[in-house]
Design brief:
Mean pLDDT: 89
Low-confidence stretches: 1-9
Largest sheet: none
Number of helices: 4
Radius of gyration: 25 Å
Shape: elongated
Number of strands: 0
Length: about 150
Amino acid sequence: MYDDPTGEEESESGTLHRRPDGVSDATVRALGALSEALETVERARGSLYTFHQLTGGADLRLDEALEELRAAGHDAQADLLEREIVGRNVIPGHWTYQIIEAYNTHYYRPFTDVEARIRQELAKGREHVYEAEMKQARRTPEHPAHTPGP
């Protein structure tokens, strides 16, 4: 990274956050909205992993509940829990990992592929052009905490 006096940043990969020549304000705003939508999808995907880990952890914790029920002399209730809940599909035919796999295959990967394609077609693949311009516009020149780059 380098600190360019024009306020433009170059990332470690060499991709500028600067708007390519000929790209309109409307296009930059549209790409900013697309980027924000992708960020929301990333959060949703993270929530699926949280769901997966919490549900799987609860299922494994049932082993302790089974042992405790049996130790307390409640074999019928332990049998019911083991038969009806332990290892149960969370939706018909699916454990949580299968939901994540389906989400990734049918929504997440196509979304990221299309987002990258649109960015490539409209802004030479440059990411966060909208945000970089907002950063530049909101900087206080000469302030040490408002530098254009790291």
